[in-house]
Amino acid sequence: MTVSMWSNQEEIDAFWRASVCDNPSGDSVLHLAVCKEDTELARHLLDAGYPVDSFNDDGKTPLYLAAELGLVSISSLMLLHGADIFAHSNPSNDEDQGVNRDSTSNDGDNSSSIPLEVAMDQNTDDLTILFIKHALSTRLDPSQEYTLLQVMARAFISEKQDVLEAFRDSGWDIDRNHSSYRRPFLHYVCEEAEQVDSVKRLIDSGADVTKLDMAGCSALQIASQLGRCLNGSVVKYLIDTGAKINTKDRYWRATPLIAAVQGKRLANARALLEAGSDPNAAVKRGDICRTVLHLAAQDGIPQMVKLLLDFGANPNVLDELNGSPARWAIRNNHIEAVRILLEGKLDPNFDKGHSMQMAIEMQRLEIVELFIKHGAKVEATMIHVARSSNKDSSMRLLEMCIQNLALSDEDISNRDGADQNVKVELHLGKFDIPSMMRSDMSDDYRLCALLIEHDHGENLAILHDFARGLLICICAERGFNKAVTRLLELGHINKTIRSYRVKPFGWTALHLAAYNGNMTLVNNLSSNGWDLADEDDLGRTAIHLAAYHGSFELVQRLLALYSNAEHRDKDGQTPLHYAVSSDSQVDIRLLECVVAAGCDVSKANVSGHTALHRATLFNLIDAVTWLLEKGGNVSAKDAFSNTPLHIAATFNGVPVIERLLSYGAQLNTPAIDGRTPLHCASQAGADNAVIALLDAGADPNKIDSRGHTVLATAIYWGKCKPSIIDTLLERTEIDWNAPRARHLVFIASLAVKSPNRASVLENVIQALHTSLGEKKASRIIKRLMPEMVPEILVGADDSDRGSPADIIPSLLDFLPENEETRHLLLFHMLVAIIKHGGDDDGDLTRRLLHLDDSNVSQMIPENWGFQGLCCRTLSSNYIYIMPVLRVTNSHSLLSLRQVIARNTINSRTPQILQRSTFATQGYGDNAGEPVGSKNRVPNSQATHEAEHPGPTTPAGKAKQNETGSKSPEDASAESGGSRSKDAVEKGKSPTAGSIGGKE
Q: What residue spans do the ANK repeats cover (predicted)?
């Protein structure tokens, strides 16, 4: 007699250990057996004591999956082993906590949560009857009885006589009430019915529409709140047949209208209101008393709120917490509901400002704006609330409040919310600015600036110089011209005030005003002694910052006052560089006035970038044309010999490419690393630029310093479309006998992960076959395999390459004939697929096993088997491992457990070869970044470029302060590919978070 693999407890325990459910779906082996309809495997597992009701990551049991698939035999097997037909797909502790199913709201979601409901919804009557008979043969708790009555109601609605007969066989019929809740069968039908027909049939059979359950709920209340009928026809029919519209339940004293609002059933609420329901009805229990409008505002459904108001609901009523309906809408940020309430005659000051104060506390900016628009009174203490709630440094909330502030002595003295600190800062309707400036909070400094701008601050004359300098900087940043004027009019503008600088760039108020293009403020500050030649920490003057802002009038004014148009910052950049450092269209007048003032169009910064390099980086075609017309050097090279054409190719700027070529740009000029513009375009996936350059005559056979052609570069990075690869294959002279690291098959096999990686490899192999013939091509690939496959598998751990499951099938026809080498490669492939593959790689796993089934007994230390790794990493592969396991005896199982050791390979196992020099010669991590890449680390440019030469942006780019603001030089290379001026403009201000300190 054959010994069963399940007969020994030690082997069973080892199997459980190997079946840890750690795969992406969290499926156990029993789940997988159900998915594959493998009744035999399921029987083995259940007979051995495998848990029958385990949940996967989706919260589904094996029986749930069987119900979804309509599997009667395997479901029957699991029921015999104790499977629970009432196991919820998302397990909860509701029943443990005594939650009453009757009180659970239903939003009309038809999704099934237990196997019994799944079988019913799948219309698998045989399986449904099996579940029903099994359930009725057991002792039911109240929740389970409730579920069965729901299923019976669905069967009645859909007229499934076979299912109803299964209920009748156990004594259940349409006259049945819930044994504990005393809920009639009509209630369940009204809850489940989507149309009125079944309700009519039941009532015609003698069901009583006025009968109540234990909680005092009528069928009308159930249909109003929980019913699946969305057009209101069931509610209307119940009303027409005598259901009472003002029946109140025993717990909340809630009417059917309140039930409809709580259930978010708009059509039902309309039917009840049209039938005469009270729109001001309220729920009452203990101290709780809230009208139906409070409840609707809490849910925030605009149509429901408007419906109640249209039928006479009163919005100016308080609940037990002294809150109006609007307060509940504010709490849950239901902006549209608040708008409808205010337009529906809600008095914004009815609750003594509590709603407005809550909106301020919770930073509901749009709601505050709505309240102010409809006449809400802003009081002094609300400024204190806004000040303490302003956590995100946004000043809009404070500004709205201060602009509409209505201060009086009575407000200050009578308002309970004003604490001692507020009273100190408020005096005769004013705020004491010196007192508030003693705070260590930068938001308080901004609040002071706001108050001064709107003439609510006092005692400015006693401010010390540092405080005045700080406030002037804040006002310059925010554009508060009136406040700056008030602070300047105090007199005594000394060097301390004029030289006050803020982090992170050491900007004075003049720099801030220029950066924001504020002509009025620049004039005001310059007339009060601020130096136009003053540099920030990066050597930039106001002209540089105004040029970056793109303000022609301001730059013209500054040049008239300060004539040095060629002033260079510490990175060697002139105002002209900054003028073309934005991806918005440049005002050509700005360029003309800067050049007319003496700025050289061909002047390069310390990285060798001219203004033409910068303009091509941001695809500014008009600026490029103007610079070329003014004598810009089309062949200018930066520190790494990159021309403007290299940069335009990288960023797919076809119009700029065409314009540069028309002015004599050289197509095949190599950079310091040997890459031509065509290399740059192919690496970046700039498909249009590749075609444009090829059409213009670019040579695709040029090689870079690593010996790689444009085709090799495009294949490795995987960013070009397959059609571009095909074009390059046709136009490139390919050396099919090239060394391994430069061989096109090798490069395609190690390419970065992309959707087209497999098809590109197939095309390369086909091109090799076409060129050399099938026999010779096969010999070449087989020669590459022993070193190529380990490199591929090692690369699978790299995030940019990922699972090799897409490329391995293309290589299986070229396995070496040497048995040992073949065995090693297949074993490594199998490990990689199980470890890195996805749920759809089971067929590949089976294919690898069939090619060499000796891998099943490959010895690796620690007590784990193939099934363990499959369950840890890839669910579907287990099904293809199990047939191999089943044919072994119990002694084989013990050795099989040792195949995979927690995803590692022991030194005693044949090793995967070390990464070849190919990976270190330009195709490893971070090698050969696209020219002008925006993903480089800020302020690490020199190091990066030394390792990976290529077109770069000027030094000093991407200097970013600790709070997220970006300087104008950020425009050269925004992180993640963005190079927009908006990214600079929209960031936090350069003074945010550190404006309180002097630098």
A: 25-57, 58-90, 215-250, 288-320, 505-537, 538-570, 571-606, 607-639, 640-672, 673-705
